[in-house]
Input
Amino acid sequence: MKFYDLSGSDNKRFSPFGWRVRMSLAHLGLEENAQVELVKFSQKDKLKFSGQELVPVIQDNGVTISDSWRIAEYLENSYTSQPTLFISLTNKAYEKFVASWVDSQVHPLVAKCVVRDILDVIDPNDREYFRRSREERFGMSLEEIVANREETRTSLKRRLFPVRKVLELNPFLGGKSASFADYSVFGAIMWARITSSFDILEEHDPIIDWRERMLDLYNGFAREETAREH
Ligand SMILES: N[C@@H](CCC(=O)N[C@@H](CS)C(=O)NCC(=O)O)C(=O)O
Output
């Protein structure tokens, strides 16, 4: 299996969607099966075979799959007989809800905290593209986007309310063990952890305990990925 993941300079892998796939591979015990191919923003030619320009992508047994959700579905369908990544039996409804909620409601706030810092961890050749494309998307400079990030963090704290409520009852969003819902939220956490020294969680937030549990999973491999100092 080949796994194409986004990379900054020094092979830093910060893509939140890449993290969903990394955690899913580890969850299924497949991390050793996947040969990782790192792709920088300026190396989109490596993805030509997939007919689109975004990572993550996997190639396995002659099939090519892009999009973290579709990749996780493929892995679960191909490598397990029982549902474990997607625990809700009704059309994966819960995981779909959480993943889409993170994409639309959590990622924009995380971006407003760390997008300027991403510039420092990507390849110097990718910086002009990154600044231009993100400034176009937000309609302001990277510096302006993050200017009020303490306030953004307070909004993020409010937005993460449902996560806190589930964690009052369970150690993981998946219940007793982690599921794709956890990996969706955790992807956003790792995105910030690797690119920025700004902690997107405020002190004493109970979500910090969950973050620690997530960092411990699968022999703590996520914790070993170099984080920027807080
Ligand atoms: N829906 C896709 C989103 C993938 C995506 O947005 N990937 C970003 C990296 S986090 C990317 O490849 N960006 C390339 C670019 O912006 O040029 C998924 O879940 O995999």
The CA atoms of residues 113 and 149 lie 5 Å apart. The chain has two domains: 2-79, 93-223. The longest helix spans residues 93-121.
